[in-house]
Amino acid sequence: MKKILVSILTVAFLSCAENNPEEQLKNLNGYWEIKSVDSPYGNDRDYKFNERVDYIELTDTIGFRTKVLPRIDGTFVNSDTKETVIARITNDSLRLNYSTPFDNWTETVLKADANQLQVKNDRGMIYTYAKFEKVNYLRESPRDIR
């Protein structure tokens, strides 16, 4: 019985820590690659390869999100579009309020840690991202030592 109680308390503690909006906010900055979209309409989609990745940059709670194209030398080509992002903690959830000259929308952060970002929009679609790791394919290889 004691083991069960300890297990339940451990799971509850970890769940609360994972959904802590202040901690989630700290993990948003960086490059994110879309992995899947889960739709309440039944047309879910998994992504095996992505030509572009999302870049999020926030200072405190204000910043932007843009699409970038990774290059084989480890650099990125920036797109011409930027979405303004304002992060707010509302009802114990982290909400990302986006705006462009054409639209405004909000996403609720379900998970944001060092490796994964998961957000839900107002239509119930859940977007899951993995942290993008830059790869430089043009690095010089080590020379043979003779």
Describe, in plain words, how this protein is organized in 3D:
- Strands 1-3-4-6-7-8-9-10 form an 8-stranded antiparallel β-barrel.
- Helix content is 16%, strand content 45%.
- It is globular.
- The chain is an alpha+beta fold and 146 residues long.
- The chain has a single domain (2-131), classed as Lipocalin.
- The protein contains 2 helices and 10 strands; from the N terminus they run H-H-E-E-E-E-E-E-E-E-E-E.
- Residues 28-118 form the Lipocalin-like domain.
- InterPro entries: Lipocalin-like.
- It comes from Leeuwenhoekiella polynyae.
- This is Lipocalin-like domain-containing protein.
Features:
single chain; alpha+beta; Lipocalin; eight-stranded antiparallel β-barrel; 45% strand; disordered N terminus; Lipocalin-like domain-containing protein; Lipocalin-like
Structural class: alpha+beta
Count every helix, treating DSSP H or I runs of 4 or more residues as helices. Answer: 2
Side by side, the strands of the main sheet go 1-3-4-6-7-8-9-10
Helix content: 10-25%
CATH architecture: Beta Barrel
Q: What's the helix-strand series?
A: HHEEEEEEEEEE
Mean pLDDT: 85
- Structural domain tally: 1
Task: Compile the SSE list and pairings.
Blueprint: H1 2-18, H2 21-26, E1 30-38, E2 45-46, E3 53-59, E4 62-70, E5 76-78, E6 83-90, E7 93-99, E8 104-112, E9 116-121, E10 126-131
Antiparallel strand pairs: 1-2, 1-3, 1-10, 3-4, 4-5, 4-6, 6-7, 7-8, 8-9, 9-10
Domain Lipocalin-like: 28-118
Pfam families: Lipocalin_4 (PF13648)
Protein name: Lipocalin-like domain-containing protein
